[in-house]
């Protein structure tokens, strides 16, 4: 039996599609077995519960190699280097696991998350190939590789773009790309940014980069990557998402039945679905603007609404005990005939329902692929990471989305006293254009 070692980043946006890709490998070749080495982060991002919710599958194992809580939390002392020190801290445990499996089977190779490139060292020790599993899109991959060249080879100071209004020519984009939609960690000069690009540089040491996209969606970007002489072989394997309409691990069966029953009672393509990912939430002032826009637009809506963590604390949003504490007075009563508010959303189940006519999304790549698969148009409202760039890709490059905002950024650290508020008018305009498409 040939063993593949997957080392993912323990965040849902990374690990969910990596597991689906692993299942595809197992379905194609019965001679493989796969071990996922799980490094649980100090903060609970729901990964443990997600893995526990999965149906057990032969030849697919999840191995907890987490450090003890004290050691793991100790890396938090240095915010900038935390992630890289945390991953490096697991090297000896990875080495030990691979050494043990080599006693009984053959280690065939490593498939690594984009942040786990230091594990290339362990693959080299065992003289096996390593590949990157890139959970985002080809356009973002091209952007990362382009900026790595600017910084590390051309010694360009990319921090000059931080607050500029320039538009840049980037090989993986057809259009000039405004700097305001680029991820900030690509532009700043902090140590975390340097470490990020050191990791991107190591992509070139691997045998190939597996990208969760497909040629019909990103033909321009994939061609640009293929034309580059500095990039390993690109393998577009998407769309890699779970399209099973099974119960979401955060929803109980009664909640899902209630959502489906409500959707069943609506006309085809009549409902706008609002959902902002596992980390998506807003403060009370912004929630009122959304509610007012939904009330005025007249469309039926299904809104996944969750409570933000305390200011300055990075954590997963929680459920409200009482929605009335943040909604405009009387909103629930006035909209009860055409709207439903929920906490966690079984997103695939909802997007696949014929009553859904539009999706207001944070533009996480997994959500975009799900929406594209089910033919649901998107209105863009990015929050963090590369989502602003994804929004630009959808609206300007691919023509598959309508803009609510392209450059909205959530302040997780609570450093800004003044938080941008997207107005009722902006939201309403985006909803109108979105639902015209349905």
TrEMBL record:
PROSITE patterns: UDPGT. Keywords: Glycosyltransferase, Transferase. Coiled coil: none annotated. CDD domains: GT1_Gtf-like. The keyword ATP-binding does not apply. It holds the Pfam family UDPGT. One of its GO terms (molecular function) is UDP-glucosyltransferase activity. The keyword Cell inner membrane does not apply. Its EC number is 2.4.1.-. Belongs to the UDP-glycosyltransferase family. This is Glycosyltransferase. It comes from Solanum tuberosum (Potato).
């Amino acid at each position: 039996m040939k063993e593949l070692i997957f080392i993912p980043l323990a965040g849902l946006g990374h690990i969910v599609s990596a597991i689906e890709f692993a299942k595809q490998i197992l379905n194609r070749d019965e001679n493989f077995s796969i071990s996922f080495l799980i490094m649980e982060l100090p903060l609970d991002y729901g990964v443990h519960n997600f893995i526990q919710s999965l149906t057990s599958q032969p030849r697919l194992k999840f191995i907890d190699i987490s450090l003890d809580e004290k050691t793991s939390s100790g890396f938090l002392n240095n915010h900038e280097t935390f992630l890289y020190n945390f991953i490096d801290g697991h090297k000896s445990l990875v080495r030990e696991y691979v050494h043990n499996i080599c006693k009984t089977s053959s280690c065939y190779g490593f498939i690594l998350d984009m942040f786990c490139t230091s594990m290339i060292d362990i693959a080299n020790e065992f003289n096996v190939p390593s590949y990157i599993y890139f959970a985002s899109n080809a356009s973002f991959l091209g952007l990362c590789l382009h900026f790595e060249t600017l910084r590390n080879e051309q010694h360009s100071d990319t921090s000059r773009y931080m607050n500029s209004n320039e538009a840049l020519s980037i090989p993986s984009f057809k259009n000039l790309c405004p700097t305001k939609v680029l991820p900030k960690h690509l532009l700043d000069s902090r140590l975390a940014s340097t470490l990020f690009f050191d990791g991107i540089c190591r992509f070139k040491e691997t045998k190939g980069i597996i990208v969760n996209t497909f040629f019909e969606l990103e033909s321009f970007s994939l061609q640009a990557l293929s034309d580059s002489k500095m990039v390993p072989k690109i393998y577009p394997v998407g769309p890699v998402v779970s399209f099973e309409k099974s119960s979401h691990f955060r929803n109980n069966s009664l909640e899902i039945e209630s959502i489906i029953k409500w959707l069943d009672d609506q006309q085809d393509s009549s409902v706008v679905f609002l959902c902002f990912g596992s980390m998506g939430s807003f403060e009370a002032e912004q929630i009122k603007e959304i509610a007012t826009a939904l009330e005025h637009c007249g469309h039926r809506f299904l809104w996944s609404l969750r409570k933000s963590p305390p200011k300055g604390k990075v954590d997963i949003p929680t459920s409200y005990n009482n929605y009335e504490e943040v909604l405009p007075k009387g909103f629930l009563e006035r909209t009860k005939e055409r709207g439903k508010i929920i906490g966690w959303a079984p997103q695939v189940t909802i997007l696949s329902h014929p009553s859904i006519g539009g999706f207001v999304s944070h533009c996480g790549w997994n959500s975009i692929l799900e929406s594209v698969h089910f033919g649901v148009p998107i209105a863009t409202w990015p929050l963090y990471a590369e989502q602003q760039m994804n929004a630009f890709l959808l609206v300007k490059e691919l023509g598959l989305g309508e803009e609510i905002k392209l450059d909205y950024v959530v302040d997780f650290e609570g450093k800004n006293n003044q938080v941008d508020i997207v107005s009722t008018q902006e939201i309403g305009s985006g909803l109108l254009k979105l639902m015209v498409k349905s």
